[in-house]
Amino acid sequence: MNWLFRTLRTSIGKKLMMAVTGLCFICFLIVHLIGNLTIYGGKDLFISYVEHLHALGPIITVAEWGLLTLALIHVATGLTLFYQNLRARPLRYKTSKWAGGRSIGSATMPYTGVLILGFVILHLFNFHFVDKENASIFQIITTAFANPAYVIIYVAAIVVVAIHVSHGFWSLFQTIGANHPKYMPIVQTLGLLVSLVFGIGFGLIPVYISIMV
Amino acid sequence: MTPETKTITITLKVWRQKGPGAKGKLETIQVKDISTHMSFLEMLDVVNEDLAKNGKEPIEFDNDCREGICGMCGAVVNGIAHGPKKGMTLCQLHMRKFNDGDTIIVEPWRARAFPVIKDLIVDRSALDKIIQSGGYVSVNVGGSPDGNAIPVPQEIAEKAMDAAACIGCGACVAACPNASAMLFISAKVSQLALLPQGKPEAAKRVLEMLRKMDECDFGNCSNERECEAVCPKEISITHIARLNREYFKAGFFSEFK
Description:
- Chain A is mostly helical and 213 residues long.
- Chain A is 77% helix and 0% strand.
């Protein structure tokens, strides 16, 4: 298995790990968004969705541990890359301009990444590691978003996620070698669409709940 | 001189560094009467003549062919490698691209893998080390092969030629926010992987060239696309995608470790 370690530890190896774990997170976010949209169907639909999800039992536990593993790989590799890339240019340019390649998403990848990590931890403490015996998840959510500070934090965090995905989506295709003159423009447009859908889809939920309660 | 000829006055802020490891700084030089027909390097020649006449040390900069094919020249001009015009080396940049009264900041390529030797000259031998680690095809000696013995489709030959256009100037490394040489190695790996002559050693080549790049303290590619934006030969990042595919094949499916 030494060959596997050798293959994954190079710069392309690390890039591949970022791409594959990133793709998994995009898939997770799609499923997460579809589930969350049930909130627009009212309290009963949302609670029934949550109950059905939790009825999956061990599958959920496996998925949670899987996501945690992916997150550890994505964060650890990302931080290693960030450190190595800073180290690769010890003296910065006195003046530096974008020549036309970079985007807001690509230039802020490590920073948006760290912000998302912070947000995910907050999010888990808000809605996952909470006492669910005495209050339903619907009550926990509505109580949280009755506080305008949470609405602002959540909307801001989701904008950050959308910016991260705007570069991450097309970039992961490039990394796995799927850059093709016929498909790359479609992938790039799709990337922008997906980040917009995430931004609007997730972003409106806290606003909607805060207005509704 | 044609009627359009005019002369401009510029303020040059140029990186001066006495030697490797010495502390450098930007030095301001007022430059008058620069013909707009001059190339950027000719402008530096004129500045150097003046400096020499006044008993000062001229600005050291790399250059050779001055027609954009050798890959020797290059500097970061106003924050962009090889200056503001796309698809050209520094020697092909003309002073007519600047206006009277402009301030022009000139810095050397900056990367841990490219230590400054003096002023604007950097040591790019790390790129040679990468090529030595696998950027070639092994040819057995013997009679010269027949020109068309190995058929190569025209489109493939053109694609390989696009990658082979790399002159090794190092602008991709200079422009990369991470100081990565990924476009440079992708050009060679892609060129040789496309051609039948390069296929036998493709797996070994990509593994060894990439390991050498990491070893030489270059950064990691994060698909910022700044490299293709400054490349004087406009080499596309589709070659990096091909490099990634070659690496994937070599790392997971070949017998090389």
